[in-house]
Amino acid sequence: MENIALIESFSEFKDDKLIDRVTLMAILEEVFRNALKKKYGEDDNFDIIVNPDKGDLEIWRNRIVVADGEVEDPNQEISLSEARKIEPDFEVGEDVSEEVKLVDLGRRAILALRQNLISKIHEHDNTNIFKHFKELEGEIYTAEVHHIRHRAIILLDDEGNEIVLPKDRQIPSDFFRKGDNVRGIIESVELKGNKPTIILSRTAPVFLEKLFEQEIPEVFDGLITIKNVVRVPGEKAKVAVDTYDDRIDPVGACVGMKGSRIHSIVRELGNENIDVINFTANDQLYITRALSPAKITSIKIDEENNTAEVMLKPEEVSKAIGRGGHNIRLAGQLTGFEIDVFREGVEEDVELKEFSDEIEDWVIEEFARVGLDTAKSVLEQDLEDLLRLTDLEEVTIREVVQVLREEFEE
């Protein structure tokens, strides 16, 4: 009776977890063999017959009959008188098979058996979940908000699998409530202990790439290739596209009439400003396109050091740099060049590093980071623009501006 009860309790897990019959039998046998080892010291002389479909299980212990008083290993040997209680015609040297009932293992062993069974099934389930999501790394996945924590949002998919969306993988403008559906990319899957940890990301560049595949048929079909994607999540992105078919305009196909095709992607990413540009192997042309909407006057490229000096008219500089320096920084990441901006027709300008005696190096570096590396490039900007572009305090900017003005007034 105990055998049937245990199998019935196992069937609950089988139905819930959809474990196949072969796996079911292997888990059951492993669990029972572990119990037999604890009870008898070894299990190689036991036969375990599992029939989960019928809900029964049999355990048989095989021993050799020895003469009374000569039993050295009671697990492997049985005395003649004990053997004849099972079958009266047994003789010395013969094999005896005797069924072992669960009750013979003891109450503690039966409780441990069930606990071990539950543990093995969860372990098997977690392994399958890990393998399933490992194959989905880099793919878009949708799950529902289950719990909102300070540093992460916990999501559940339709199968009840837990997925984590960390704070730093959320777009800054993201705001979700319990029950909302969230789309992101399966960024990583790791086993911590025996439990899989599934990380979702909405900030990874590959998420934007996969959204293009979902929303734009030519990208999905392979007619248009995405060569590179760079992002400042929620702010700005640049996507370089190419095609082998001269009849297709890759940029036009991705953007659509009046932005109709890219609109749903922009909305998904919290109104992220997406620049789609034609990829080219011509570095000068590629940099020119990457700095759009600014119009470039000329470019001087140093291939060896991967640097580019870009000349622009003064009114184009702010366009090239972009809000918060995003445009020039993303253009550099997209093309692989460190881009320096220079103003056309500006005479008697002085590089900021010449003021290192009066302005601290880290302040000069912060201005250079957003493309403001000369005195006049800083003075041409309004105070509000300088505050927006840099991470500097107002008092620091005012001090710098004062130093630069004094230079040109002398």
Explain what the structure shows.
- This protein has 410 residues and is an alpha+beta fold.
- Among the domains are: 2-131, 2-Layer Sandwich (N Utilization Substance Protein A, Chain:P, domain 4), CATH 3.30.1480; 137-201, Nucleic acid-binding proteins (OB fold (Dihydrolipoamide Acetyltransferase, E2P)), CATH 2.40.50.140; 204-279, 2-Layer Sandwich (GMP Synthetase, Chain A, domain 3).
- 40% of the residues lie in helices and 26% in strands.
- It is built from 16 helices and 15 strands.
- The protein has helices spanning 2-17, 21-40, 80-86, 102-105, 107-134, 205-215, 217-220, 250-255, 263-268, 283-290, 314-321, 326-335, 361-369, 375-379, 383-389, 394-409; strands at 46-51, 56-66, 77-79, 95-99, 140-148, 152-156, 162-166, 181-192, 195-201, 224-232, 236-243, 273-278, 296-302, 307-312, 338-343.
- Strands 7-6-5-8-9 form a five-stranded antiparallel β-sheet. Strands 1, 2, 3 and 4 form a four-stranded mixed β-sheet that branches. It has a three-stranded mixed β-sheet with strand order 10-11-12, sandwiched between helices.
- Helix 1 runs parallel beside helix 5 (107-134) and helix 2 (21-40) runs antiparallel to helix 5 (107-134).
- The radius of gyration is 36 Å and the shape is elongated.
- The relative contact order is 0.06.
- Participates in both transcription termination and antitermination.
- This is Transcription termination/antitermination protein NusA.
- It comes from Salegentibacter echinorum.
